[in-house]
Structures are given as C-alpha cells and as structure tokens.
Amino acid sequence: MSPSDYLYLGRPTGPIYLRVRAKGLWAGMLLALAALMLAGLALGAGALELSHAQVWQALLGEGPARLGAVVREWRLPRVVMALVVGGALGMSGAIFQSLIRNPLGSPDVIGFNTGAYTGALVTIILLQGSYFEIATGALVGGLAAALLVYLLAYRRGIQGFRLIIVGIAISAMLAAFNTWLMISASLESAMTAALWGAGSLNGITWDKALPSALFSLVAMMLTLLLGRRMALLEMGDDSASALGVPAERTRLQLMSLGVVLTAAATAAAGPISFIALAAPQIAQRLSRSHGTALLCAFWVGALLLLLADYCAQHLFAPRQLPVGIVTVSIGGLYLVWLLFRQSRLASS
Amino acid sequence: MPGFCRPGMLTWSNLNTNDLHLLVHKAPLSTSLPAANRLAWLVLCLGLLSVLTLLSLTLGAKPISLAVVADSLFGPGQHPDAIIITEGRLPRTLLGLLAGAALGLSGAIIQALTRNPLADPGILGVNAGASFAVVLGAGVFGITSAAGYLAFAFVGALATTLLVYLVGAYGTARLEPMRFVLAGVAISAVMMGFASSITLLNPWAFDRVRFWSAGSLDVRDLDLVLQVAPALLLGIVIALLLARPLNVLGMGEDLAVSLGSRPRLIHATAVLAITLLCGASTAIAGPIGFVGLMIPHIARWMVGTDQRWIMACTLLLAPVLLLASDIIGRLLVPGELRVSIVTAFVGAPVLIWLARRAQPSGSRT
User: Fold this and answer.
1) Of A45-54, A155-164, B183-192, which has the strongest mean pLDDT?
2) Where are the alpha helices (DSSP H) in chain B?
3) ipTM > 0.90, yes or no
4) What is the CATH number of the domain that holds A236?
5) Do B167 and A237 touch (CB under 8 A)?
6) pTM of the full predicted structure?
7) What would the pLDDT profile of B84-135 be if each residue is shown by its tens digit?
8) What is the tally of structural domains in chain A?
9) Which PANTHER family does the protein's record reference (chain A) (predicted)?
C-alpha cells in the first residue's frame, strides 16, 4: 500500500502521531454524515410533522415551548440512544470479532446476551419487575454469564478457541433455561418477555437513557485508544508481544470494554444482537480494509439502528414494532446484498 | 490429546482461507491415535447406545419390564402396558436414534465444510426457515395438526437452505465456506425478524410457536416418525458417503482439485445432506440445538481428524446424548422436561470439561 493511502496527523517524533487510512476515513465520514441527516429526518417525523427549520429552532430552545418539548424530550432521547446504542453494539462486535478472529464473533460469544435475557426473564416472569428492575436483572445476568465464561475459559491465559467453546456451552445452558422459563410462564408474561427480548427503544426518556449513554461514551473513547493495540494483537500474541503489546492484559481490557458497551446497550434497549454481528462485517466491506475498522463499525451500527428504529416507528404506524425485529430484517437483507455485490465484483 | 490437529481447526483463527494450504503442510492429516484406540471408543459408544435404547423403552413415568417390552414389540402384545410401548416409547426411542444421528452428522458436515467451530447445522438457515414456516402455518393459515406443522417446517427448511446455497454460491469461482456462513446468518436473521413480527402481533400464534420451538421427542405417533424416516436415512447414507471427499477437501481446495475431486459437487451434496438431515429432524421434533454443535467436537477429541472416524463416532454418540437427555427429562420432574432443554445441561458440562482439559491449539500458536 502506498503512503498516500494514509493521512498523517503530527510528526513521527512528536507527542502526537496518528496515521489514518484515507479510505476508511472517507467511509467513516460519509456514514457519519448519513447518520446525522437521518437523525434530522427522524426528529421531524412523527404524528406531528415538523419542518427542518422548526426542528432546528426546537433544538436551540427557540420557538414554541410545546414543539421544544416534543423534539427535545420525546424524540431527541430516542434518536440519540439509537445512535449511541447502535454504535456501541457495532464497536463491541468489532472488538470481539478481532479478539477471537472469527467473523461469527459477537458479544454472544461470551454469553452476555443470553445471560442478560435470562436475567430479564427471571425478573419479568418470576418477580414481575418494573422497567428499571428488568434492566438491572439483565445487567446482572449478562455480567454474571460473561464472568463465568471468562473464569471457566481461563487457564494460563485466555485462548480464543477455548473461550468460544466455553461460551457456546454456557450460552446453550442458559438458552435452555430461557426456553424452559418461556414455556412454563403464562402467555402474558411470555409475550412481555419476548417483547423485551426483541429489543426496543419505545418509550425511552432522558432518565432511562443518560446512565447508559455516559457509560457507552467513556467505553468508546477507551476502545479507540486501544484500537492500535487491537490491530497488533490480530497478528498473534508473539508478534504483538515483540512489538511491545502486553497480549493478555490488552485482551482482558478489550474484552471488558466490549462487555461494558454491550451491557450499556442492553440495559437501555434490550438485547439487539444482530448489529454486533453485522456492523463490523458491513464496515469492513465498505471501507475495503482487511483489518477491523472500529470507527466505521461504530457509524455503521449507529446508522443501522437509527434506520431500523425509524422504520419500526413509521412503517406500520400507528403500530410500533420493536426495533430489534426491524434491525435483523434490514441488516440481514443488506448483508445478503453485500455478498451478492462482492461476488459480482470478484467475477467481473 | 492430539485430536486438534485437524487442518480446519487451525484455520478458525485465520480467516483468510487462502492460507489454508500453508497450514495443511504443517499439520498433516494423519493422526497419532492408534486404530485400536479409536475402535475402543466406537465399541464403547455402541455399547452405551444399546443400553440407552433399552432404557428408553423401559424407563418412564411407569417403569415397564424388558419382558413386557419384548412381548409388545415382537409378540402378541396382550399386556395392558403394551400400548404405552407401541404408542409412546417406541416412536420416541426411534426418533431419538434417528434425529440424534441426523443432527450429529449434519453438524459434523457443516463443521468440516466451513472449517469453523462455531458453525452448527442451524447456520444454513434450517432452523430459522422451519420456524418461519411454522409461524406462517400457525399465524396465517391457522394450522393446528402435528402433520401440518411437519409439512410446513420441512418445506420451510428446504426452501431456506436452497436460498442460502444460492446466495452463498452465487458468482464465485472458488468455494468460500465463510460466504455460506454469512449468507446463512443473514438469511436466518431476516426470517427470524419476519417470524417475530408475526408472533408479537398475534398472541395465538406466539403461544403455538413457543411450544413448537422447545423441541421434544415425545411425538406419540409412529406414523409421523415413519414419514420422516426415509428422508433421515437417505441423509445419513449421503453423509457417510461424504466422509472421504470431505477428508480430501480438508487438505485445501487446490490440492483437492489436483487429486481429482470436484469441490462444487461435494459442496452441493453436503448442503443437500444437511438439509435432509436437519430439516427432517427439525420438522418432526422441533429445533433441538447443541447436539450438532457439540458431538462433532467431542468426536474429534476422541478419534482424531479423519472424517470417516468422526462420522462413525458422531453417528453413535449423538443419539446417546439425545436418548440420555430424553430419559433424564422423563425421570427428573413429574411433567417431563423437554429434550431440547435437557440436552444442553447434559452436554455443556462435558464440553467445558473437555475444553479445559485437552491441549487445544493454544499451546502451538
């Protein structure tokens, strides 16, 4: 690859030296632009149609107070959370796919989502909990499952294959338990649980959104800082160590960040699992890079969830679908299309 | 244990399948396991399977003696308990044997084909397709009979796998197993999305499907089992015939072609076998996860890397897991636990124990 493929910031000897792949950067910027434009559209759409000027006024706190409340208190948290949750999931997917070097990798690998679902099911079916209790239950369940997988897979270090196998085993047991809970529950609680399990941004407010948004943003910053080490780690532990990257410690840090990102997303919106799987794949194909593109994965995830949420709200209006359902449909179709296009490019 | 020297196992960590041939030369196909050792494992599995088959016929809410079992199967069947055997336990034992072998073998094929340990037969969209078809049947067409579900599920599984195959194979000069996996994941996701949106808007269909999707061997109808048996047996035969070609393909596509095999044909046949096996067993018993994923791993640990041995071992071991789980489910609680739930709790601890104990590829890299 020629040096002109890269953009340089700072000097090699200076305190700041960043090298960014130009293609990835362009893809990232375009995605970001698309996401922001879609966000503007989503803020204006709804039962009360608003023009762009009205949305802008409302965001700045000008114009009628009534419109301000609709935009800032109802629609903005939802749009912001779609971006943050989607981005967090995309990033955590990128982390896990890079760590275990497997495109099927996602936070599911260490059992987080299944554990979170177990926690939520127990809270819904056995304890009849409220929104915050369900979120807490999901967090506890997910973190406990992830910790269990990590501990059982730990033997003089974490090794990708063992982690996968132990993750599969623990997830399978939890999933079996979930199935049992679902068929022994009453139809009503089972439907409630299934709705939560589909993942939804319906009825989200700033109160519910802020804690998880803050956690996500901090974790994202830290992940970006570790991005270069992650890329080096993909070359194998020995090469990474030779280049001065402490393999085991970096892996633990990255894995924890991945779990925090997923946990924050799950607490806010339920388990929306497909984005973590698809966003890094789509990002990789868009930016035509061989490595994992963290920022690109973030924007693809954010765009995907925002788009899905927009469809979930307006496609069958006034009926609102859980966003997770739309996500899998849109993301899946897009992935199929990408596969098709890739093969056309390859054959031409 | 040297069971992890399978060439494919090395490449899970290395997505670029073009590098496969490099790894193959480092890890030759031959294993260091003596044949006697492998034979011993097979005999042990066979013994276990026979014992479990008998136990499956005799144990249950009402224990029935072997003499009565023999009488009701082969004799006049005058004993009052004969009906429990012929209507209840015989179909379920037969189904356990057939579906177990089917799920295990399809898992072995898909793992050999994609060289990905995360791949389970469901990845080709079989389960998602069957579920979607059942949701359609229950939610849109109002189907209630078991035979109706069976037909819908089987057709759904067939159609979906065909779609996945077309998307995965479209326009590629080389075989790319990873594309199949991604195509399967993507199409499954779309199907699941559609299915969930139907069920979440239709409580009645939701209720039907939540019970269907917890797979069970308790079909109580020998005719249903006999209906799917030909598909399953055909699939098993194709799978066993595929063992040698898969061995050759495991050495890398280039090498396989130069040895005279036809990768595309092998690929298509493998997909056909998986569809028959997994589609038919899911159609009749509902989705039973984990068997197809776990048993081939365990078989590799036991008998090494030769697909012929893996298949033979899987063929015996997978029904062992399924029958054992079914028996445990019958005895554990009064209302019976469904086999798809018990399988995970029986199998997962074994898998974890093996993963911690064996010396997997980590010591080499």
Assistant:
1) B183-192
2) 7-11, 20-26, 35-58, 66-74, 82-83, 90-114, 126-139, 146-169, 177-201, 203-212, 222-249, 253-258, 263-285, 291-303, 307-332, 339-357
3) no
4) 1.10.3470.10
5) no
6) 0.77
7) 888 888 899 999 999 999 999 999 998 888 777 667 777 788 888 988 998 8
8) 1
9) FERRIC ENTEROBACTIN TRANSPORT SYSTEM PERMEASE PROTEIN (PTHR30472), FERRIC ENTEROBACTIN TRANSPORT SYSTEM PERMEASE PROTEIN FEPG (PTHR30472:SF24)
